[in-house]
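Continuing the batch. This is chain 6 of the set; chains 1 through 5 are on the previous pages. Same settings as before, nothing changed between runs. Recording input and output for traceability.
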Amino acid sequence: ADQIYANVREYAKYTGLRSTVVFGGVDIAPQIAALRQGAEVLIATPGRLLDHVGQRTVSLGVTEVFVMDEADRMLDMGFLPDIQRIINLLPPVRQNLMFSATFSGEIRKLAESFLKNPVSVEVARRNAAAENVEQLVYRVPDAESKRAAVAQLVRDRQLSQVIVFTNTKIGAGRLARQLEKDGLNANAIHGDKSQQERLATLEGFKKGEIAVLVATDVAARGLDIAELPAVINYDLPYSPEDYVHRIGRTGRAGASGVALSLMTGSDERLLDGIQKLIKREIPQQTLSLDAALAERARDGERERRGPREARPSREGWREGSRDGARDGARDNGREAGRGPSRDAARDTAPRREPRPRTQLPGHSEDPFFYKPYEPGAGAPAGAGESVDAAAAPAPGTVAPGAGPRRRQARPVAALLGGVRKT
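Output for chain 6:
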């Protein structure tokens, strides 16, 4: 949104049109102040726009033109309910414009449900990758080798700027930290970072202060980096349409670019879907990894995972009591419906010795809690039994004024505790 706002300001410099932008992740007060100044063009993200509508700082009742950029994403990925609410707030007479590099059949049908007599304008073949972008797939032995492959490709090809795409936010942050250890100036943008952090990272990337920008699909949608030389798909995307959007970050405005993808043997299905969508076969090569980089990547992965065998179980001190109670509950619940054959099999099966009850470290048992009930010192012996016997009604009768008969109380054990956060 902020990038489009910068472009709109540039285009409208000599027109007198006022514009402003609103998006989430930042303080809303400056946005309210800007809206009160008035604007003919408002650039907004769906969620923050609805926030302003709720605060009555924006009225959509006089909107003449409604534009959706990255329309396929706006009608997907959970944005649809917000988009539908916004459309319901717009006047019935308006112009709708939708822009996207890809439009699946399902998204097209959904868009037509609230458009009237739409006209489709295609400036390139549908779902096509730019012809001026060189595409290449590198096969690597396993997932652990991908990090070394990224570092090697950046150095061998002398890439001064590159966007590396991952499928997850956790993977993006982890890869950026690992590339930093390999001596590359890298940073990540993803949904878990604040808007200010993402803007600062993007600004550093545009200025050349950051050489490798690791990003997820959502964070990188619509990025316009002038003359970006290359993109690398660390993970092949699950959606073939996302591949078209990813490689569209390079080779913009007629410039040439390179799109490199890493794949293991388990990625064949994803590659087949991409090639089917773009209607072309992508050349493949086997990447010979630098031994030192590959070993460092494996060492880093082992260090991250840690020795699983040596790791103490968080459940260790609770196993005895928990397993016994859980198994007993299961047995009691199924006892009525168990046939004799199963009982026989159970009787002949070797029995597992009960586990000794383990004790919470640093906890000493108090024998007081294991004693049976004893009357107080002031009560005569047998007083409790005689009172109960005298007060008890005869079998089959109810004492006058008594409520429903109470069930005999049974001792109940309770275990209170928690798991220490690591």
